[in-house]
Design a protein that fits this description.
Layout lengths: L2 H21 L3 H11 L5 H20 L8 H28 L1 H20 L11 H18 L3 H9 L5 H25 L5 H18 L1
Length: 214
Amino acid sequence: MELPVLLAILATIALGTYFQTVTGFGLGIIVIGLTVSLNLVSLNVIASVVSIVTLFNCLVALMGKPLLGELKILVVLVIGIIPGVSLGVFLLGELSESATHILRALLGAMVLFAGLSFMFKPKTRTQRSTTLSFLVSGFSSGLAGGLFGMAGPPIVYHLYRQPFTLDLVRSTLLMVFACTSMSRTVNVYAAGDMEASILWLSAIAIPLVALVTM
């Protein structure tokens, strides 16, 4: 990898990390959206790198702070996330070999959905959604996280519709993203797809992520 390309990737990671530290989401959308659209690196590689650095970002951001997430909600979300991630990683492996154009179209649709969600804040509900809706939201986020390494859009949209405080939403998002990132990394490693390029790029990015997060 040439130095200008590496610096461009690190710059997008720094930008995404800062945004996620402040808002609780956005790292995957920014990094993957920019790097893939600019053809800086393959989706398979950057999705795995984002998963690893997201895990570190979430852990550093939560360090020394009270965990405000509600246990029942977190458990339901995680139950949905784990199978979603596994399916997403599997589909990424299948589509990246046989249907790259479909994969890019799905990624574009996800980025567009995320952008519209940011522009038009969802209307807050007066009552909390059903448990099933959190389960579906968790599965959708896991699927998006497994496919693209960006689990944010489905869960962000759902949580911001709930009658929760911003601190509760942010804390819940960080814990959910940590779980999604860990699950995805384990799935990629178990499938034997943890390439050397993923490891060394992550090793370079992690200190930067920790610095920006603090």
